[in-house]
Amino acid sequence: MASSPRNAPWSQIMMTGCPMLVNQHEHSHINTYEVNTPQHSTHLYASDHLIVRRGQEFQLKVTFDRPYKPSDDQFAVEFVIGGSPQYSKGTYIPVSVAKDRQSPWAGRVVDSTDNVVTVGITPAPDCIVGKWRTYVAVVTPYGIRRTRRDESRDLYVLFNAWATGDSVFLDDADEREECVLNEVGVIYHGAYDDMSERPWNFGQFDYGVLDACLFIMDKAAMPITNRGDAIKVARKASAMLNSHDDDGVLVGNWSGDYTYGVAPTSWTGSTEILLNYSSSKTPVCYAQCWVYAAVFNTFLRCLGIPARVVTNFFSAHDNDGNLKTDVILDENGRIDKHRTKDSIWNYHCWNECYMSRPDLPQGFGGWQAVDATPQETSDGIYRCGPASVQAIKHGQICFPFDAPFLFAEVNSDVVFYSRNPRDGTLEPVKVNSSHVGRMVVTKVPGQDARRDITDQYKFPEGSPEERTVLEKAEEYGCHREKATPPEADVELDMPLMEVRVGDDFELKLEFNNTSDQARTVDVYVSGNVVYYTGVTSSEFLFKTPRVILDPKKGRRVEGGGGDYMRKLVEQANLHFIATGKVKETGQIITSMRVVTLHTPKLSVEVSGLAKVSEEMMVTVEFTNPFKFNLEDVYVRVEGPGVMPPKYKHYRPHREMLRWCTEAHYPQPSVLCSNGTWCWLIQVYHFTRLIDH
């Protein structure tokens, strides 16, 4: 018999007459599985236990040793969570079916046939989320008798985006379907005007993933009583998904050396990462921003919190509380690389989760930005958010949590300073207020397409609303460059280029003289291989042309090419920056361009028609388009409910790679695959499987 939880109100109940006892072998959730899981949208979870969502009724059947008599018999279904359950803390919940006995969770008799009673139970919409132990307590003349502990009767209670009383209620059915139930997604990377897609298997319903997500909260020693608060859960998880402070899930690595783990570009899904972490109890190697965001997305969706991955193109990393990214030029207009320390990430991924914010004024609920990538500490811990996206847009950065950092990521100015050769002082010569936060995107619900959500983070550049927001942010301590250097009468632009890995190219510079006089411009052109974080790996191009422009005329100048292949790093982009000094006026002109290197294609084919419960063959093919061998080629393929992660390693590879492997098809799904060459070149593909 289980010991009585403390503060249990049932310890005072007595009754007379023949006692009714529970049949220990018949009290089960299994026979109500087909009723509960479709109604609770938990039918996709691979689990041996019942999984329900709070704020919504579920049913279970209890078999007694005789027919139930409502007028004489008293019983309760008890739910217990944590190591020291207490009624006053909401960790011990006795649910009575008697109308005169109130309970935090509603209970009623749905049906009573012979010895079997079907009980309907509605967990409170703010109850603790986690794995609950279940007992049935019967009042007898000798006291309360409880069923013995049986792990098979444990059930999981999750957040409920379908329940109006839940803090994560999301009224948009399409968004709810995408942000809670979709197991696969697309993460965008590259450049805002030349985006690439990375498929990802979130796998929130895979066997063991739910337990792994609960283990993360256990590992963090998160109080059980806080686990029904979506705000606290999201904030705790933003710390626990990285390993910096607390042996969290993922080890970050931007060094390019992944000898002791898996290269971030090699992962195709979250399942393996979470299962490895929960089984080994040690952090998994390695991750970069999109891996943190993807695994965080799995965590949130698995627990029932609507979530999506967003990508911010040209994302500022501001760690000194201002809204400036400083570029230092010497007296000739050339970038001083020794004194220019700030960098702008070509893209950065974080998450949004949907919830109400009762801790904030009305209107700041809804989508909240959270970020698990360890960039800066918040209250001494590497974490970020949740911060109201509405608060970020309106400059209300005083609201918790970490709104100033996120505000700067989408609103910083790029300020060019010229060093005075006489006294060494810096003077602003050009301010680019539109470069950072150029575009914020996420996946369209129900489609493999992208959605521009920049307007949810900021007002249009130069609008009166934007000026008001920036003034508001300055009131709360975010400082920006006040100087407004005069616009130069010579314009400089670099047109977009599409470059495939290995291709030669010719950089072009377009000048336009808007003045009535001739202009002479001394130009410095630098081409660099950069990591996606904007950090320069090496310079491969440097030119110093002098350009003479006639009045009111334009001119196109060839800026040259360069041998970048020998200097490639993982996820490399080509970053070009041109600065020029107009001889007649001393004005500085600048232009920047990030070029995404397009990679070869990987193909995935499935043999025959995909049919439920049948085996199928998956063929992965890749043709080497280069004139040299590819060394250490790793191929990885997986699909939720279809195929666990599978790998294959190829050493020197010159022409076509072909790999055939088996998969099982229990349900419509998606196959995600990638190939990696020496961690430098990654190719991706995903194939949607539809039942025939």
UniProtKB/TrEMBL annotation:
<keyword id="KW-0012">Acyltransferase</keyword>
<dbReference type="InterPro" id="IPR038765">
    <property type="entry name" value="Papain-like_cys_pep_sf"/>
</dbReference>
<comment type="similarity">
    <text>Belongs to the transglutaminase superfamily. Transglutaminase family.</text>
</comment>
<dbReference type="InterPro" id="IPR013783">
    <property type="entry name" value="Ig-like_fold"/>
</dbReference>
<dbReference type="InterPro" id="IPR008958">
    <property type="entry name" value="Transglutaminase_C"/>
</dbReference>
<dbReference type="Pfam" id="PF00868">
    <property type="entry name" value="Transglut_N"/>
</dbReference>
<keyword id="KW-0808">Transferase</keyword>
<dbReference type="GO" id="GO:0046872">
    <property type="term" value="F:metal ion binding"/>
</dbReference>
<feature type="binding site">
    <location>
        <position position="466"/>
    </location>
    <ligand>
        <name>Ca(2+)</name>
    </ligand>
</feature>
<dbReference type="InterPro" id="IPR050779">
    <property type="entry name" value="Transglutaminase"/>
</dbReference>
<protein>
    <recommendedName>
        <fullName>protein-glutamine gamma-glutamyltransferase</fullName>
        <ecNumber>2.3.2.13</ecNumber>
    </recommendedName>
</protein>
<dbReference type="Pfam" id="PF01841">
    <property type="entry name" value="Transglut_core"/>
</dbReference>
<feature type="binding site">
    <location>
        <position position="411"/>
    </location>
    <ligand>
        <name>Ca(2+)</name>
    </ligand>
</feature>
<dbReference type="InterPro" id="IPR036238">
    <property type="entry name" value="Transglutaminase_C_sf"/>
</dbReference>
<keyword id="KW-0106">Calcium</keyword>
<dbReference type="Pfam" id="PF00927">
    <property type="entry name" value="Transglut_C"/>
</dbReference>
<feature type="active site">
    <location>
        <position position="289"/>
    </location>
</feature>
<dbReference type="GO" id="GO:0007399">
    <property type="term" value="P:nervous system development"/>
</dbReference>
<feature type="binding site">
    <location>
        <position position="461"/>
    </location>
    <ligand>
        <name>Ca(2+)</name>
    </ligand>
</feature>
<dbReference type="InterPro" id="IPR023608">
    <property type="entry name" value="Transglutaminase_animal"/>
</dbReference>
<dbReference type="GO" id="GO:0072378">
    <property type="term" value="P:blood coagulation, fibrin clot formation"/>
</dbReference>
<feature type="domain" description="Transglutaminase-like">
    <location>
        <begin position="281"/>
        <end position="374"/>
    </location>
</feature>
<feature type="active site">
    <location>
        <position position="371"/>
    </location>
</feature>
<keyword id="KW-0479">Metal-binding</keyword>
<feature type="binding site">
    <location>
        <position position="413"/>
    </location>
    <ligand>
        <name>Ca(2+)</name>
    </ligand>
</feature>
<dbReference type="GO" id="GO:0003810">
    <property type="term" value="F:protein-glutamine gamma-glutamyltransferase activity"/>
</dbReference>
<feature type="active site">
    <location>
        <position position="348"/>
    </location>
</feature>
<dbReference type="InterPro" id="IPR036985">
    <property type="entry name" value="Transglutaminase-like_sf"/>
</dbReference>
<dbReference type="InterPro" id="IPR001102">
    <property type="entry name" value="Transglutaminase_N"/>
</dbReference>
<dbReference type="InterPro" id="IPR002931">
    <property type="entry name" value="Transglutaminase-like"/>
</dbReference>
<dbReference type="InterPro" id="IPR014756">
    <property type="entry name" value="Ig_E-set"/>
</dbReference>
